[in-house]
Structures are given as C-alpha cells and as structure tokens.
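Subject: complex prediction, re-run

Hi both,

The earlier run crashed halfway through, so I resubmitted it with identical inputs.
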Amino acid sequence: MANFVVDTDGIKRYLVNITVNGTKYTKMIKANSLLVNFLREDLDLTGTKRACEQGDCGACTVLLDGKPVNSCMVLTLSVDGREVTTVEGLAANAKLDILQEKFMEHSAPQCGFCAPGILMSAKALLMKNPHPTEHEVREAIAGNLCRCTGYVHYVEAILDAAASQ
Amino acid sequence: MYLQDFEYFRPGSVEEACQLLFTYGFKAKAIAGGTDVLIKMKKDLLAPEVLVAIGQLPQLKNIEYIPGRGVVIGAGATHNDIQNSKVLHEKYLSVAEAAHQMANNQVRNLGTVGGNISNAVPSADMPPILIALDTTVKIVGTKGERTLLLEDVFTGPNQTVLEHDELITEFVIPDNGFTGSTYFKFGLRASGALAVVGVAAAVKMEGDVIKDARIVLGAVSPVPLRAKKAENFLKGKQAGGELFTEAGIMASHECRPISDIRASAEYRKDMVRVFTMRALDKAVNEGHV
Ligand SMILES: Cc1cc2nc3c(=O)[nH]c(=O)nc-3n(C[C@H](O)[C@H](O)[C@H](O)COP(=O)(O)OP(=O)(O)OC[C@H]3O[C@@H](n4cnc5c(N)ncnc54)[C@H](O)[C@@H]3O)c2cc1C
Ligand code: FES
Ligand code: FES
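This time it finished cleanly. Structure:
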C-alpha cells in the first residue's frame, strides 16, 4: 500500500507513482482524488473533459492500461503503479494521430467537447481491432454522448482512419 | 464534483480485506470497480470513512473451467473480462452476452460482477442469467466461508445476506446439463440504459421435450424472481410456440413490478410475457448455453 503522511488537519496524503502519456509522476494526493481531477488540476492536462461526472457521457474517457474508462469514476489511488493515456498523449513527435487528422478532415466535431473522449474510445478500438465494421465503431463510441452532431461524421472519420493506417 | 474525505486501504488478500471491514465496521465499505460506490458517494447517498479496495486482487480475477466443479468466475472479473472470456464463449455464451448488454464499454472495463451482485439493484443485468444457470456464490468473512445459491443471496432492493465483513470471492456455474440459455434485456436505449425488464431462460432438452427449465425475471420485483409456476408448467412437455406463449402469460402473472420513471407496471408485465416467450424460444432452438 502507498506510503502516506498526515497533514495538519489529520488527513492522510498518499504517495502515488503514475505514468501518464509515458511520463512518470510521483505525487502526494488525498484518497478522495478522482483521476479526472488529478489529470486536470494536478497535472494541468485539461484535454480530458468533465461533464456529467457520473459515468454516463464519456467526456472524461482516458485509457487505463490501454483500456478506455471514465476517469470521473476512478480513484487516483487505484491507478498507483499503472499507466494512463490521455488525449494529450495521442500526438507523437509533433505529429497528430491519424484519428485526429481524420476528425479534422471530416469535420467530425462541432463544439468539440466530446471529441477527446471519442478520440480515446476510438483509439482503444483501433489498437484492439485495426479494421472494425461500422457496427463495431458505433458500439465502441456508444459510451460517448455528443450533443451537437449526429455521430455520422465521427463514424466516417474513424472508419477512414482505420482504412488509412 | 468532489468526494468527501475518507481513508483508503488496498489489502493484499481477501482475508486482509475482510479483517479491515471487520475492524472498521459500518464506517467501511468495500470498493471494486467503484461504478456504483463512487456515484452513490457523489450523490451523498453513502459516506464511508474508509474504503477497502479489492478491485485489483489477482485472486478475484480468474475465469476458468474446473472439471467436476464447473465454470468459476472471480468476483473481481469486470464485465468486459466476462464478455471477452474464451472459457465463457465456449461454455456459457449467454453469460458473455449478458455482460455485453451492460452499460457501455468504459463502464464495462471498470464494473465487476461481484459489485453488480452485491449492489443488489433489481434491474441489475447479471443476476437473472446466473441464477438461471444454478450459479453458486462463495462468500468469505472473518468467521470463515460459506457457499450459497445466488438465488438466495438477495433479500431486497440494495440488500443481500452478506454480513458487513463478508466478501463474495467467486461464482461457480455447475455442470448441471443445461442445453440452452439466454438473457433478454429491454432498456430504453441500446447502450448505457438500465433494464426496464430482463428475462433469462435456461432449459434442459431431451429431443424436443423440456426436461427442466428456469425462468428468471429482473427489474420486476424487489429481488430477481424465478417464475416457478411457468417453470413447472414446462417440465416434461414438448417444446413449441404455443407452450412458450402460455409460459409467458404465466410468468407475467407471477411478477410484481412497480411503475416508475422508466415504465409502468402494466407495461413491464406485458414485456415479461413477450420476453419469456422469446427467451424460451431462443434457449430451446439456438442450441447453446
Ligand atoms: C453509466 C452507468 C451505466 C450502468 N449500466 C448498468 C447496466 O446496464 N446494468 C447493470 O446491471 N448495472 C449497470 N450499472 C451499475 C454498475 O456499473 C454495475 O452494478 C457494476 O457491476 C458494479 O460493479 P463495481 O465493481 O463497479 O461495484 P462497486 O461500485 O465497486 O461496488 C458496489 C457494491 O458492491 C460491494 N462489493 C463490490 N465487490 C464486492 C465483493 N466481491 N463482495 C462483496 N461486496 C462487494 C461494494 O461494497 C458496494 O456496496 C451502470 C453504472 C453506470 C455508472
Ligand atoms: S464526466 Fe465522466 S462520464 Fe461524464
Ligand atoms: S461536438 Fe459538441 S458535444 Fe459533440
């Protein structure tokens, strides 16, 4: 179990080691820290969005050990020793991920608030299944709600990204 | 949304976890995937002072077939672990399919079958199909362990027979000779919607005669309900459309649904009739458990 110190209010602060987008972070956090808040507030990685905060919308989707999860329902302490990938980790060497390219090409997002989450769900799908069917794409992003678009361009962009990799 | 302060323990074994739950008593709560616990805490429905994290205990994760015992599913298996399990695809496809009908991909990567059962919500998706297959539950506490039929675990909405220091460690689907089974869920959307009605059926066929049958209804009574009159009615009879129709009518008389925001009691009753009919047809004719 993580080491901890007790602060002046008698509240424990626990030591965690978490790899985010390939960088190792060592931080002291309270037990009530949620991963979405840890990413946005402690690491300034604000690409991950916060909306419903109860697991319904997928705006906060990140990859935990390669699998998409809602970071608003994950305690940061449960991620100790594990690996997280956020939307900031998709681009490599100043080059956007093919999904990001295709999202732009197809004008997939409108306001864009749901886009980071959809990117992460789509990324997880393509890592596991490089040539998904349209149905598989729709299932993969079924946990990501979009209030602007009708998902059509998103689905086309993801299928196009799969075809272009 | 921020959570209230609490202490966090990540024990290295089930025994240690039970000891912590015993020591801290009603102040403590076990957390596996957290998809129920954390949401309740956010809504101020629950304010544990201590969380005991059991989600990552490797001893709760395995899914395997043990000849003579049956298919063992660790309580910490996530819904996606179940959905993707080779063992379940071979042995009980219907269980993998039921897990797939839960929530959405992100939630299925977090939520566990142990949490789904222990949370004991009437609309939960895993209880009907597991009860239909005569699944047993191993429960471990500081005073020892016991094994119960899953059917006997639920005592009311959000209530089970579990003592405060007890944890479910595994589910066992015994080799009971079912030849077909399935779970039908009706939700208001295909993804991320709780069941308005859930019906599981399992049958043992000899030729086209039904030797034994289970019908388990979800979301239409305080606990998952076996439609025993309909089950008995089917025994020894030749399978067929009219028989299933009649069994459906019987099951719809047996359930005790409420009206709520998602559907009226009348609607639920009628959906039980339709789904019982369809589930029996599929369990009998599709040829897999
Ligand atoms: C957006 C969303 C959609 C959902 N959709 C569905 C759905 O379609 N169908 C459905 O059935 N559910 C659904 N759920 C509910 C939830 O995801 C499931 O019930 C899930 O299986 C709970 O498991 P968990 O590991 O997250 O439980 P936790 O939240 O970790 O725990 C739940 C309860 O079980 C106890 N517990 C956990 N593990 C054990 C154990 N091994 N032994 C004893 N007690 C234990 C905990 O103390 C707690 O009281 C949904 C939830 C969300 C947020
Ligand atoms: S903010 Fe996490 S699912 Fe909506
Ligand atoms: S683009 Fe606005 S919510 Fe999806």
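Chain B has three domains: 7-52, 59-173, 180-286.

- K.
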